[in-house]
Amino acid sequence: MNGEPLESLARLKERFQQLPGVGPRSAERLAFFVLREPKEFAESLSNAILDIKQKIIHCKTCFNLTESDPCAICSNPRRDRSEIWVVEQPKDLISLERTGLVQGVYHVLMGHIAPLEGVEPENLTIDALVQRVRDGSVREVVLALNPTLEGDGTSLHIQSLFSEFDVHVTRPARGLAVGSQLEYATPSMLESAIRGRSKLS
Amino acid sequence: MIHPLTPRISQTTNQPTSRRLGFSYHTRMAVFTDTAIVLNRIDFSETSQILVFMSKEHGKVRAIGKGTKRSTKKRFAVGIDLLEVGYLSWSSKHERSETLATLTEWKQIRMFGGLREKLSRLYSAQYVAEITARMTEDWDPHPELYDALFASLLDIGNAEEPVDAVVQYQLALLNATGSLPRFDACQRCQRSNDLSHFSSFEGGMICRHCEAGQVEKREIGGETLRRLQGATSSTARIGPFSVLNYHISHQLGREPMLAQKVVPSSKQRLVE
User: Fold this and answer.
1) Final residue belonging to a domain, choices B111, B126, B146
2) pLDDT digits over A150-163, tens only?
């Protein structure tokens, strides 16, 4: 018994505890919540969890998460295929899509180059990106990677691969956050903003 | 009488960069502050990271940054990036605590923008950070090494060929950690001429007469030796890097992961 009289409840609590940001108290609260709810709730919850494991795959073109291959973005005829937005994770793609401003298609790298962590270019989907640019009529590759040292290193690596292609390699502007105050900006934000200042027109 | 909770902190330094802020009374922990450079960061959970800093007055500090990954809090600005310089505050039971310290504040002072402009600079800077993190002990102060690290990151960020700046730093690091080899005389017979091979095991050069009896060795060219002996007129770059990297690899038990990115092994075998 080990002081835990309900083995199934303990097992559920243990599973919830494996979720990110869930500690033992939260796990216990969630487990008791499921216990209180009707059986239909537990069934729909477990089905929803199973569904994402069984139905969600990676798009073979852009490596975004999807339930059908190609994904909704790659199969949309109104998307501009000459513009590829390169992101690190599917979560980044969702953030960009939320703006409604990206007309092009995406390419998800599934991470960034981090030699200290053993992540090399061949562990990412960079080869597939190069193949897409080689095969198609791509005009611009936008490297929308995280503005960290590793993200910038990955951008430099990809840029070097496209040096002999007739393609513009760009990246989103960086610097001051809209709505923030100059006096609270970090030196790196200011440096990026000063270097990348743009003309008002 | 010293209060039992008083942290063991040197009272001799009046440096503005390093001071004790006091106690956090809720946790009975002491709070410290120093200037530091971020050497490494490892994701610990969805929002937290384990960070390794090279601080000026306290040496290498390992701390857990709770919430640093997705921070919108003012105390961590917008996250902590590799190789940036900042004011670091952390709490721990005492100065040389063996457990991870807890990061309480990070305020960025500067970044080395030039590192992000060329891949060779970026990899060189990461190599420098890697060997610093692996060659130094926690809580072992090396203010001169901190200064050398800062200067080398500055040089690498402006260099067309960053290998020179890396070699300067390799020498500074080996000197600070007491592992600097001798390049002026044979480590077996003390002769100062006919120096032809380097042996990490012997701790420096060996001459043509003694090298036959030494299994662990590598040949060194004249230009490389002149550079390692301090001749600024020497044009050798890759040779000195590969010799010092060979020695560092022996000290660490394996080659630094970024070494091949700075100079590929095919070039490292060249004898300059």
Assistant:
1) B111
2) 999 999 999 999 99
